[in-house]
Write a structure and sequence with these properties.
The structure is a single chain. The chain folds into 2 domains: 150 residues, Medium-chain alcohol dehydrogenases, catalytic domain (Quinone Oxidoreductase, Chain A, domain 1); 143 residues, 3-Layer(aba) Sandwich (Rossmann fold). Helix content is 30%, strand content 26%. It is built from 11 helices and 15 strands. Strands 3, 4, 5, 6, 7, 14 and 15 form a 7-stranded mixed sheet that branches. It is globular, with a radius of gyration of 19 Å. The protein binds NADP nicotinamide-adenine-dinucleotide phosphate.
């Protein structure tokens, strides 16, 4: 099968396109004829050998996708051959065929195009799990989203609105903020302006945000923590800007909490809530409350260009690899 191939840890440029044997599903696994996969920042981190999962070489990156079930391994009753599905993969999405854990494979509605389904799961489900179950966002509360035009940021903006919150979108440029606004953000802050945390205070009349969704960390962490109000919840979600240290004194005084959220570990510990998240999201999609944003599509042969859009910080919403 045609596949992206990693033969050693390295940058995106070290990957090649070639042929690998098609995988066979083992117990609890599903073989998917892939139609679309989308790029996540973690694909770049995995390619470098810096992700929690380190696949054996040679492997294809690609943590999610959609297609048609080709075969199932023993014990799988959740899906059957011929069904259209989306799945969270351990790796292997940028290829003609991929293996998915059955528990991470979900049948999709007939009306859902493959490019939307292939770029739905990680962005929407991971953000939903964080905001609904960890952040416990309530209607009328204020959600501050960093990286608000990115793959998980833009979905968080929509999820916050669907949950009845007021959403403040933060991003590094006015163009990116315009995308967040088009997806429902109520207020915008450009954090390339060093005074951005003052603007959050202004927008919230000095109260601060109730929940912060942070996929970036790094230098943004400190001002974002200052933007969290009394009793606020800080969602530690990703580290594209670096891993921050949390000063405990700044949690104590304002009764703030900082909490991690990881789709990967959530699925191992709270399956019922994960499935509830998928169902709520598909319901919102059917009701027109979500508007999945695919900003670029690349054929499999150009998968590296797709990955570079994220690494070079150009990506808006989801970048999809289409598989003929
Ligand atoms: N915890 C979980 O369950 C989970 C699930 C999925 C992803 N993640 C993590 O969340 C993070 C974001 O993933 P994503 O797929 O949303 O990525 P993405 O689409 O690339 O978006 C990340 C955003 O971060 C901002 N950014 C700041 N510094 C950056 C840098 N040095 N390089 C690239 N972008 C930078 C960019 O927005 P501005 O230019 O506006 O700042 C960009 O839009 C990653 O660390 C990923 O591993 C966690």
């Amino acid at each position: 099968m045609r596949s992206a191939i990693a033969r050693a840890w390295g940058e995106v440029e070290s990957l090649t396109l070639g042929d690998l044997p098609a995988p066979t599903p083992g117990p609890g696994q599903v073989l998917i004829d892939m139609k679309a996969a989308s790029v996540n920042f973690a694909d770049i981190v995995m390619t470098r050998g810096e992700y929690q999962t380190k696949p054996p070489f040679p492997f294809a990156p690609g943590l999610e996708g959609a297609g048609v079930v080709a075969a199932v391994g023993s014990g799988v009753t959740r899906v059957k051959p011929g069904q259209r599905v989306m799945a969270k993969l351990d790796w292997g999405g940028f290829a003609e065929h991929a293996l998915a854990p059955a528990l991470d494979t979900h049948v999709i509605p007939d009306s859902m195009p493959f490019d939307i389904a292939g770029s739905f799961y990680v962005g929407y489900v991971s953000s939903h799990v964080a905001i609904r179950w960890q952040g416990r966002l309530e209607p009328g509360e204020t959600l501050l989203v960093l990286g608000a035009s990115g793959g998980t940021g833009l979905t968080s903006v929509e999820i916050g609105k669907a949950m009845g919150a007021r959403v403040i979108a933060g991003a590094s440029s006015d163009d990116k903020l315009a995308v967040a606004k088009a997806h429902g953000a109520d207020a915008l802050v450009n954090y390339s302006d060093p005074a951005w945390k003052d603007k959050v205070q202004e927008i919230t009349a000095g109260k601060g945000a109730d929940v912060v969704f942070d996929p970036i960390g790094g230098d943004l962490f400190d001002p974002a923590l200052s933007s969290l109000g009394w009793g606020g919840r800080y969602l530690v979600f990703g580290f594209v800007g670096g891993i921050p240290q949390i000063p405990a004194n700044r949690l104590l005084v304002k009764h703030r909490s900082a909490m991690g959220s990881s789709l990967r570990y959530f699925r191992d510990h709270a399956r019922d809530k994960l499935d509830a998240s998928v169902q709520e999201l598909l319901g919102w999609l059917a009701a027109g409350k979500l508007k999945p944003h695919v900003s670029a599509r690349y054929p499999l042969a150009q998968f590296k260009d797709a990955m570079l859009e994220l690494r070079e910080r150009r990506a808006v919403g989801r970048v999809v690899v289409t598989i003929p």
